[in-house]
Every structure is written in C-alpha cells, then in structure tokens.
Amino acid sequence: MTTESFRPEKKITTFYPPQRTLMGPGPSDTHPRVLSAMARPTLGHLDPVFTEMMEELKGLLRYVFQTTNLMTFPVSGPGSVGMEMCFVNMIVPGDKVVVCRNGVFGGRMIENVERCGGIPLVVEDKWGDPVDPQKVEDMLKKNPDAKIVAFVHAETSTGVQSDARTIAQIARKHDCLTIMDTVTSLGGTPVYMDAWDIDAIYSGSQKCLSCPPGLSPVSFSERVVDLVRNRTEKVHSWFMDISLLLGYWGASRTYHHTAPTNSLYGLHESLVILYEEGLERSWARHRRNHEALKAGLKTLGIEYVVAEPYRLPQLNSVYVPAGVDEKEVRRRLLDSYNLEIGAGLGDFAGKIWRFGLMGNSSKLENVVFCLDALEHVLIDMGVKVNRGTASSAAHQYYATNPVLA
C-alpha cells in the first residue's frame, strides 16, 4: 500500500476563514491587537521571559475578577475545563452540593457534581428567570450538611443575571463554599469576587475578554486551597489538580504541562486592553450598546425573554416574532451579511435569538449594522416593519446618552 491510498479525495490548501461579524453568544470578535500578539514568536513554557509574562497575567486576572487570591490563573482549556476544575477539586464522593439551575449551564453543573460522586440538591427556576435566593435558603435549611452552593452568574442560554452577592451571603451563613460561573459576565458586567465572598470562580477567554476560545480564567480562595491540601484522597483528575498546578503557576515554576504560550500572549493582551479601558468603562460600554440595540429591536416588535432588571447587557435573548422562520433568518444574515447571531438552546430551541454584544463586538457600528441587516432580512421575508426605524432608534439613543467620561 502506498501513501497515495491515504490522500484526501479533494485537494486541501491553506484555510482562509471568511470575515464574520460575531454577534452570537460567543465567541466574540477577537481584537486585532490580540491576533497580533498571538502571532509573536513562540517561547518555551518555562522560559524566564515567559514566566515574567505569567506573573503579569495573574495580576491582570486579579484585577478583572476583583480579587487578591494568589491562586488566580488561566486554565489551558475552554470554560468547561475551568468549570470541571472547580468541581473536581472541591467535591469528594458523598458531598451534598446545592446547584441552581435556570438554564443549560446550571444543568452542566449538576452533571459535574454527579461525575465527582457528589449528591446534587437542585434548586430549579424557570428559564429566563434569575435564581431565587429564597429557594437556596430553603434548600440549605433542609440540608444542613450541604458543603457547596454552585450557581451561574450570567446564564448564557437565556441572558439572565442572578444576584451573586445575595446567594453567596446565604451560602456563607450556612457554612457552605461557593462556585460561580462567570463565563459570560466577566468583563461585561460587574463581578466582585472578594466583596461578594465567592470561593471558586471560572470564566472563558472568548466572550467579553475578546480573545479566541481555549483558555479559562479561574480563581480560588484560601478556603478552597486549604480544602484541597487537606483532602484524604487524590483529586480525580491529574491535569486539573490545583495542588499540582500550584507548582507551575506558583513561584517554583515546576513542569506540569506544556502551556499554550501563544494563546496566553493573546489573553495577556486582551486583559491589557481591558485594563487600559477600565472595568467601569467596559461595563458602561456594554450597557450603552445594549440599550441602543434594545431601542432598535423594539421598533421591529421584538420582545425580550428576560425581565428588564435581570437582563444581561452583553447577551440579549429575544423571542422570534410569530410566523417567522428563525433558522432562515439566521441563515440569511450569515450568507448575505456575514453576520452571526445565536439560536436558542434546550427549552428555548427554535423560540429565541441570542444577540451577543461582548467585548470587541460591543460597539456602535455593530449595533447599527445588526439592526439594519435584521430589518432587511425580515422585510425580504414578508414581515411588515417600517424601513430604517430600527437603526434610527439606536442612533437616537446614542445621541442622548453619551459615552462615559
């Protein structure tokens, strides 16, 4: 047998992706400075120059998480790996864990608890509603031996934000540790890890941080570090054992795994960009663009899934108008305008669209472009809307609500 037998049927050449505008639930548009940073010369993951950059990266992440935790670093893997790292380190078989589910990603937390041998105590809320703190309180009263409370701060599948401070206060009152998902919230809406007394937190690089997927920023309180050090059995994952990772991300720089150096360059640059802008200004920018998008969508008769006090500015979930083929709209936006928006997941599949305004994708030109494109597609599909009103409403909002000084 010759090598010809294994050649692909068609000729394969260098891959050149199309230039899209990413306004779905993630990833967001990568900032050009981040792409440039990732193209720089590759260094060894134990190179002293690279380890200096690692220290800066940890400091920048502490700023973004608003924490002083020493155990703050990016995991080599997507947000799902950061999630699993929290659960696999903190749970031993038999532990009772209160898990709040009001969307897809709360469900993934339950799966992690079960795979770690824990016992999930599920607090259920309707999709599109925030977690009800009273239900958490009631569950903990019924289960005084619970060890952990886990919840999603910003539920990507629905666009709802829950009251992290109150949930964490309830957990602390009942002597429970907390795990919080900030994959969609970090950088786009306030996150105060220390002020809210959160024990374990994880996020993703590809949303409001405007970096490609593949890294998961995490942070652990000293309570979690002590818990892991005092475990009587090994963590059920070698790669995600934070007691081993302490050696690589700590002062000693002992070999653990080959870190994705160029991806870490990109995350470093994305955090520098966020630091230059300032967290408060980033949060205000996401809010301003959300309000402009909302004003435009209203003229098209499009309604939001989430009640206004709980809406995520960076993840806008809206109901598909009656009689409209939601998949066809998304196809036309992608094919004709190179514009990506998100579909519904789980209970919301086929019922909603998700418009992302995350990181570098959260800007005036994207809001106006998206509204114009959506309006044109709807008109072409026979939906009666007033041409030009959507972008006009957005411009009107921008004109009367200047950028935060």
Distance between the termini: 69 Å
For the biggest sheet, the summary is: 7 strands, mixed
Class of the largest domain in CATH? Alpha Beta
Give me the Rg, rounded: 22 Å
The helix fraction, in percent, is 40-55%
Are there runs of 5+ residues with pLDDT below 50, and where? none
Average pLDDT metric = 95
What fraction of the residues are assigned to beta strands by DSSP?
5-15%
Outline: globular
Number of helices: 14
Structure classification:
alpha/beta
Question: How many strands?
Answer: 14
- Strand ordering within the main sheet: 2-10-9-8-5-3-4
Any guess at the CATH architecture of the largest domain?
A: 3-Layer(aba) Sandwich
Q: Please trace the helix and strand order, writing H or E for each element.
A: EHHEHEHEHEEEHEHEEHHHHEHEEEHH
Number of domains: 2
By CATH, the topology of the largest domain is: Aspartate Aminotransferase, domain 2
CATH 4th-level superfamily of the largest domain: Type I PLP-dependent aspartate aminotransferase-like (Major domain)
Keywords: Aminotransferase, Pyridoxal phosphate, Transferase
Pfam families: Aminotran_5
Family: Belongs to the class-V pyridoxal-phosphate-dependent aminotransferase family.
Modified residues (N6-(pyridoxal phosphate)lysine): 207
